[in-house]
Each structure stands twice: as structure tokens, then as C-alpha cells.
Design brief:
By secondary structure, the chain is of the alpha+beta class. It is built from nine helices and five strands. Strand 1 and strand 2 form a beta hairpin.
Length: 201
């Protein structure tokens, strides 16, 4: 299973956003990495702006190029606005749902929970992070993993009210994917139309 394992703070500084979660270095060095980071004034081309937005989406959701392109093609074939459908597909990934449920502090940690067979969908173990969860399916923690420290620490103080498309049940440590989220409810700062324009060239 391929995944990005390079320096995360460097990528976050490149975009000027904590796309991998809270980062102390980002608050101290809120400028691009590299020796010319503080003096970077060169104008970015239209293509560069579009490419940057695609890269931001890929890093945010932890998806590599081939997977991302396949999701875009799927979004193209699906009824609706392509850019919005693309984000909805990314939001429907199992690792993202696990992250939205608060079982893990980051998407990378959520991916690990899934890969290590700690997550169940409708009562059955699913260890594929890219699995697309369908509305009405229930995602939860496997019984023997419910006492894991990483899960309890992540859930401590986590607010489930902010994601309207997921209904959380604290008693069973599980959440129901009620419906596909509308664009206004997806909190990620991504300009999806720029990604569509890039792939349309």
C-alpha cells in the first residue's frame, strides 16, 4: 500500500496551512521552506496555481497521484459537479471517516488503524483505507481495540457535532455515515474547480 512518508512540516509550510494536523513549526516559520522562502516573490502561473491546489488535496487526504486521478475519473462519470463529487468521494474514504469520527488524531493515524485491522464496517473488519463507505453504513472500532490508548486519547474532548453527515454513538464507539456531505459542510480549504480545470487541459 503506497503512501507519502516524506517530511510533513515542509509540505505544510509550502501551502501555508496545517494540512497534516497541528504543527508548532508552522506557527514559528509561516513562510515557504528553502533558503529563499522568506523572499519568494515570483508570480505563479495559472498552471502552477492549479497544480498547487491538486497537490494540496492529495496531501490533505493522503492520496497518491494514481489513486487521486482514478477518483477524478470516477467523479467525472458521476452525476453532479465534478469538483464537488471528487471531494465527496475523498470524504467517503474509510480512513477519512475514521478520522472524522475522532478515532485518530490525523488521517495518517486513521489509515494505520484501518490497515492494522482495528476498524469494522457493518460489523466486518475492513483493512483497506481507500474503501468507499456508503450512506447508512456503520463504522466502528473492533471490540478488542476499543481500549487502545490512541483511540481514547483522540476521542477525549473531540466534538462530533461539527460533522452533520455522521451520527456518532458513544456507547458502541461507532458512527453511521448518514449521507454524502454537501460542499458547504466539508471544512477543507480546497478550491476544487482549479483541480477540474487542471485535468481538463
Amino acid at each position: 500500500m503506497a503512501r507519502y512518508i516524506g517530511p510533513k512540516t515542509k509540505i505544510a509550510r509550502k501551502f501555508g496551512e496545517a494540512i497534516f494536523g497541528p504543527d508548532k513549526t508552522l506557527t514559528k516559520k509561516n513562510y515557504p521552506p528553502g533558503q529563499h522562502g522568506q523572499n519568494h516573490r515570483r508570480k505563479t502561473s495559472e498552471y502552477g496555481i492549479q497544480l498547487r491546489e491538486k497537490q494540496k488535496a492529495k496531501y490533505t487526504y493522503g492520496v497518491l497521484e494514481k489513486q487521486f486521478h482514478n477518483l477524478y475519473l470516477k467523479a467525472q462519470r458521476t452525476k453532479g459537479v465534478t469538483g464537488v463529487v471528487l471531494l465527496q468521494l475523498l470524504e467517503s474514504r474509510l480512513d477519512n471517516i475514521v478520522y472524522r469520527l475522532g478515532f485518530a488524531p490525523t488521517r495518517a493515524a486513521a489509515r494505520q488503524l484501518v490497515s492494522h485491522r482495528h476498524i469494522v464496517v457493518d460489523g466486518k473488519v475492513v483493512n483497506i483505507p481507500s474503501y468507499l463507505v456508503r450512506p447508512s453504513q456503520v463504522v466502528g472500532i473492533r471490540e478488542k481495540a476499543k481500549s487502545m490508548e490512541v483511540v481514547s486519547e483522540s476521542l477525549a474532548g473531540f466534538s462530533h457535532e461539527k460533522y452533520k453527515w455522521i451520527e456518532y454513538d458513544a456507547a458502541s464507539l461507532a458512527g453511521t455515515y448518514l449521507h454524502i456531505p454537501v460542499r458547504e459542510d466539508i471544512p477543507e480549504n480546497i478550491k476544487e474547480q482549479l483541480i477540474v480545470e487542471l485535468y481538463s487541459k
